[in-house]
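@channel anyone free to eyeball this complex?
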Amino acid sequence: MTAKGWTSAVAFALALGVAGEALAQAPACEPAKLATKYPSLAGKTIKFGADPQTPPYTMRDGADFNKIIGADTDLARAVFDCQGIKYEIFLGGWSGLLPATISGQIDVFWNNLYYTAERAKQVDYVLYMQAGTGALTQAGNPKKIGGLDQTCGTTAAAGLGTVEDAALKKEDEKCKAAGKPGVTVMTYPDLAAGIRLVQTGRADIMMTDLAIVESLAIDNPQTYARAFKILTGFTIGAAVKNGNDELLKAIYEGLVAVQASGGQKAIFQKYKIDPDLQVAAEIKKD
Amino acid sequence: MQIWLRRFTGLFSLALILTLMLSACGPDAGTQNTSTLDNLAGGGSITKSGPPPFLLEVWGYFVSGFLWEGAWIAVKITVCAMSAGLLLGLGLALMRLSGLAAVRATAWFYIWVVRGTPQLLQLVFLFDALPELGIKLDPITTAIIGFALNEAAFSAEIIRGGILSVNRNQSIAADSLGMGKFLTLRRIILPQAMRAILPGVSNDTIGMLKLTSIASIVFVNELTFRAQQIVGQNFRFFPVFIAAGAIYLVMTSAISLFQAWLEARYDLETDRTQRKGANLMARLTGGLIGGWDPAPPAEPAPPRAGEDDAPARPMPVPRRQLDEAWLARIAAAADVEAPIGEPFVVARNVQKAYGGREVLAGIDLTVNRGECVVILGPSGSGKSTFLRMINHLEGLDWGEIRVDGHTVGYDYAAGRPRAVRNLAAAKAAARIGMVFQSFNLFGHLTALENVVEAPVRVHGIAPAEAESLARELLSSVGLDAHTEHLPHRLSGGQQQRVAIARALAIKPRLMLFDEPTSALDPELVGEVLNVMRRLAAAGMTMIVVTHEIRFARDVADRVIFMDEGRIIEQGPPEQVIDAPVHERTRRFLRMVEQAGTDDEAMPA
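replying in thread with the prediction:
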C-alpha cells in the first residue's frame, strides 16, 4: 500500500468516526448554545406568520382572545424555545403568508402549509406532519356519504383553488361519465364561510384538512360529523425563504429534539389531532 | 382684533392637530399578539358559561375589548390615510387643472393606474415587492400608505369637480384684487368648493373604514379580521358578526354626523348669525375647519323685520355721506407720481385677438389723474376687454398700457409684452380697483369679510385697522345693517355697493367699472350710480364702461365711443353725446335712448 493509499484510508476512517459520533448524539434542546450553533440567529427576533382562523392549527384562545394557540403555533413555540430563538407571531390572512415569506417580511411560514413542488421552488421546508383530507357533514351524516366515490348527486364545498376543489371537480366528471348526476361544487374564500355552508345545509359535505374536520366534529357532535377521510399523501411543513439555510437547520434540529422527547405528539393530542399523522422531521428543498 | 388673532392662531392649531394625528400613524405593536392588555373579550367567558340569551351574547361581543382594538386600528388607518390622501388628492386635482400638458398627463396617468387596479394587489405590492428595493414597510404603515395613495386618486377627481363647480367670476374678482393663485384657492375657491366635495369625500371615508379589512392580507388585525378569527375559534357566526356590524355602524354613524355638521358649516343657505359661536371645531381651529368665523360686529345688527324676506327693497337712506375727505386723501396719495390733471393711464397701440378674431385693433388712449372717463359702445365693441387689460385681467397681444408710468405686470425684454413671473404681486402693487357687471362678491364671505379680504391678505394691513375701515366704507355706501350678511341675502344694488366698498378698501389709485348697473333692476340703478357720482366728485380717477347715458352726461369729464375694437370718437359729453360726428355713434345713441324710453314707459 502506498503512502497515498494509507492517508486515504486514515482519512476515510476519521470521516466515518466523526459521522458516527454525530449520529450517536442524542438530539437535545440547548437554548444557551444558540450563538455558537447558529451565529446568524443570535440576538435576532424571528417573525413567524400564521392565519389565526385555521383551527386547530392556529386560532385565538376562547378564554383570552389576545392569546394565539393551536397545534402549529404550539409546535413552533416548542421548537424556537428549544433552540433559544426569540420570535414573534405575525397574524394575517393565509393567502398573504407565502408572498410575505418570499419577500422577507416574515421569516417562517408555519401554518398548515402543504408541500408542493411548485411552492418548493421559492421556499424550503421542514416537514413534520402527514396531511389528510376530511369531509365534514351534518350530524348523523344524513345522506350517508361514505367516500369520495359516493358524492355523485350531492353538493360539496371546498376552498377556492385547493387540492380538494380539484378532486371534487374530477369526481364530478367521473359521475357524469358514468351517467350519474354530477357533483355540485361550491367554493368558499375562507374556512368559516365553508363551515356555514354545511351548517345551513347548502352543502352536503365540505372537504378540507382532516384535522380541522375532526376537531369540528369532536367539538360539535350535535351539529357536525365526519363523513369520511382520505389520506392524500401530502405532507405539511414549516417554510422559510430559499437560502435561509441556518434558520432552516435550526428549525429542523429543534424539531428533531421536540419529536424525540414526545413533544409533538403531546401537542397533537392536546388539539385532538391523530398523533400518528406525525412524520419524522425532514428538510425538503426543491 | 381678537378675531383676527384667533384666525391666525387657527392655522397654527390646525397644523398642530394634523401633526398629532400623523404622529399617531406609526407602526402599532398592538397588531401583533405582543399586546399585554388583559382579556376584555366578553365573548370568551360567555362561550364557557353555557349559551346565554342571544342578545346578551351579541352585547358581550359588542363590548369586547378585542374587537374594539380592531376598530381602533381601522379608525387609525382611515384617519391617517384620509388626511394624507386628501392632501395628495388636492395636489393631483390642481395638477389635473394645470395649464401644462405634461403636468396634467402625469396626474391623469397616476389616477388611471391607481384607480384602475385592485387595492388588494396594491397592498400586496407595497408590502411584498418593495422589500426587493430595500424598503420594508410594517403592516400598519403599508395599509396607511396603500389607502392614502388610493384615496388620492379618487379624491383628486372629487376635489377637481368641486373646484370646477365654483363660478369663474370668483377667481376673476380675486385676481382683480391682486390675490395670488394659492391665496385664491385657499381663501376663495376651496371654501366654496367644499359643498360639492364633502358628500363624495364622506362616502370615501366610510368606504375606506369598512374596506380596511382587506389589509389582513398584509397582517393588519382590524375589526373584520378579528371577528373572523373569533368565528374561526368558536363558530358563533351570527352573534359575532352582528356585534362587529354594530361596531361598524357606530363608527360610520359618527362619520355621517361629522359630514352633516360640516355640510351645515359650509351651507350658504344657513344664516350666518345662527351659526355664530355655535361650534367647538371652529373655535378650536380658529374658523379654519369650522368655516369662516366672522368678525363679530361691534354692535350686533338686529335683523329688522321683513328685511331679509324682501332683499330687493330700495336702499335705506345713507346715514352719512361717503367720506369725501378720505377719498380725497386716496386721490391725492403721495405714492402716485403723476400730478393731478396729468396723464395717469396711457394706452398705446393696444391690440388683442381671440383665436384669430380681432377684438382690439390698436387703441390709443390717455386718461388724466382725477379724470372720469366713460366708454360707450355696442356689445362686442371691445370696451370691456380693453378695461380688463388695464389691470391685466386679460393679457396684451401687442402695445402697452402704463398706469402712473408703470406697466401692470409686463416685461418688454423680448420686445413684445410678456407677463412677469409674480403677476399677482404686480397687480396688487398697481392698486387698481375693479367693479364687475355681475358684482362677483365672494359668495361665502359676509359683506364685511368681502371688504377686508384683500387689505389683510394681500396688502398686509392690520386686521383691526382693515375692519374699521371696512365698516366705515360699508356705512358710507349705506350698508351698516348688512355687514354680517352673505351676498345672497342682499339685493343686486346692495351687492354692487359692497363690491364698490371692496374695491375702495385697497385704497385704489384708479377705479374701473365694467357695466356696473347692467345686471340691476331699474329701480336699483340709482343707488349705485349715486355712489359712483360721489366718487368722481371726490377726484377719483375712473374709467367706466356703461350704457347709462345720463350718468355719462352728468358725471363724465370725457366720453369715448368704441366700435369694432377701435375708438371712433371721443370728447366732452356734450360733444359726443349731444352732437356726435360719426354716424355709428349716432345710431348707437338712438338705440340706447329708445331702449331707455321703453324702460321708463314700462310700469314699475
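from a first look: The mean pLDDT of chain A is 87.
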